[in-house]
């Protein structure tokens, strides 16, 4: 086993076992203030400030030396398909509809719960190693995904991806799968995991099925997670078939509320943005996936923010990104907006950091994404000894534009230490399990790994 730097004794390994009252000393905040942070064993931040170590040292079970690191809130990935880690590099450089219907869906037809378990374990590992503490996931075999997330101790909103193309029998199966996930997640009694209903998109789920999804979501008081206005073809087809935009169609079906997270939004019109603002719905921006699949237009961030829409950030799945690194995503979001809309002031560094943290927590419906008293201890310690963090003229700029996930030294979610000195306890087992699971998937599909 790799002996990671600084983790040597049994006692150190106990760091990862459970929540304990923790003091982080001498850490820098993005505003360049040097502080100590203290949180208790319920995982809630109780004090942040220069004198905190003096006042609370005796109450802390663990002390982490934060010197040489910058503390930022844990990152929130508001749109992904976790287990698609197994499909990383399987189908690149294709047109979106062809990519889905000729490569992705045929392979996904061979998925089992075991694949999704290992794919989600790998996704959680990758997220922990790059500073993500919460994600909004839409995929299949979500009870297996829930097991993987529960073991990984990060936050997640889990939805079964509903794709019906109008088939009633399929819709019944999909609703049953959704209901199973909702009840299974509740039975876990985890404060970190919730469920959502996930009608895949207006082009895969017709209006009558969308309405039933919306009703179910309202009845269960859960999020509704969907794809929206990703391509021009989607918007044109919707106009032709239903005489309205996909956004108006979702609204007519009752799918737009403040519990709705819609991914992409590349081809939203200004009126669509106004409607989303009125409904309090959230848009998850996925710039890497959009650029890779050549959706042809960047999400109109200026219109969305003008209309008061909460815009968060997501990576999309590993088959269209091809990683889950939210620090990388932040940079690409900020530069993609400036480039596409030819506006150098659009989406500045501080805004993209909020997009990846507090706006994400808001979209997923929990209090978080800020390092302050009363907030959950979702904290990253980013190494200041990385070349990409030097010099430190502006910590927020370095985070948004310069660092990548490899700069994250320590990841804490809800007070629990998940990575320290870049060490995650079960990393080797996960890599082994996920690699053989990916081979197994391709073998089952008759593709030589
Ligand atoms: C939940 C479903 O969503 C599919 N999926 C993955 N990425 C995208 C995308 N960019 N657009 C639409 N669907 C996507 C998954 O492959 C799965 O079939
Ligand atoms: Zn997606």
Domain tally: 2
User: What fraction of residues sit in β-strands?
Assistant: 15-25%
Structural class: alpha/beta
Second-tier CATH architecture of the largest domain: Alpha-Beta Barrel
Low-confidence stretches: 1-10
Bound molecules: 5'-deoxyadenosine, zinc ion
Oligomer: single chain
CATH hierarchy, class of the largest domain: Alpha Beta
Please state the overall shape, judged from the principal axes of the Cα atoms.
globular
CATH superfamily of the largest domain: Metal-dependent hydrolases
Strands in their spatial order, largest beta sheet? 6-7-8-9-10-11-12-13
Descriptive report:
With 449 residues, the protein is an alpha/beta fold. The protein folds into two domains: 10-72 and 380-428, Urease, subunit C, domain 1 (Roll), CATH 2.30.40; 75-364, TIM Barrel (Alpha-Beta Barrel), CATH 3.20.20. 40% of the residues lie in helices and 20% in strands. The chain is built from 17 helices and 16 strands. A hairpin with a 5-residue loop joins strand 1 (22-28) and strand 2 (34-39). The longest helix is centred in the middle third of the chain and has 21 residues, at 168-188. Residues 1-10 have low confidence and may be disordered. The structure holds 5'-deoxyadenosine (5AD) and zinc ion (ZN).
Key descriptive features of the protein:
8-stranded parallel beta sheet; 4-stranded mixed beta sheet; disordered N terminus; binds 5'-deoxyadenosine; binds zinc ion; S-adenosylhomocysteine deaminase activity; hydrolase; 5'-deoxyadenosine deaminase; Amidohydro-rel; metal-binding
